[in-house]
Design a protein that fits this description.
mainly alpha, Arc Repressor Mutant, subunit A, three-stranded antiparallel beta sheet, two-stranded antiparallel sheet
Length: 168
């Protein structure tokens, strides 16, 4: 079997790989890792290009609007958690969204050092319109090629990864 043109070993190969060196990945692990990295990169890139062309939003700006649409308000520090990007990058992205009228900044009455952000009515409209094509492309590029069992397994695996990284 091969993935991305690279041979993929058996489970036995993964167990028997030489782990006495600097901690190299087995052939099977290497194929899985590269498939994940390459596939994720290609998928996010395609979604980013489509969102930019069709909605004038980057993938990261779209994610910010999604997160804000699911919360009444968020502190900027909370928005930058969860792997979106660094605080400074999220701050720049939010500033662009504020300039376009998609997001509003509010004072945090409980902590003057923080600012709150919320999605505006215009931002909700832009998100709703962008979501139509976004969902269509996510289905076309990802879910149309997976069985329901693979979707469940993908969710299980990536949730484990996210929880491991979040807990580190």
């Amino acid at each position: 079997m091969s993935v991305n043109g690279q041979p993929v070993g058996s489970v036995e190969d993964a167990v028997e790989s030489d782990r006495s060196g600097p901690g190299w990945l087995s052939d099977t692990e290497q194929a899985a890792w590269r498939s994940f990295v390459d596939g994720s990169h290609e998928l996010i890139g395609a979604l980013d290009r489509a969102l930019t062309a069709e909605a004038g939003l980057s993938f990261d700006e779209y994610r910010i609007l999604v997160i804000l649409s699911e919360n009444r308000t968020l502190r900027m520090s909370d928005l930058s958690r969860g792997g979106l990007a660094s605080r400074s990058t999220v701050s720049r992205q939010v500033s662009r969204l504020v300039e376009r009228g998609d997001v509003e900044r509010l004072p945090d009455v409980n902590d003057a050092r923080n600012r709150l952000v919320r999605i505006s009515d215009l931002g909700r409209e832009r998100l709703h319109e962008a979501a139509k094509d976004h969902v269509r492309l996510v289905r076309r590029y990802l879910f149309d090629h997976l069985t329901p069992e693979q979707v469940v397994e993908m969710t299980r695996v990536l949730t484990t990864v996210r929880n491991t990284v979040d807990g580190a």
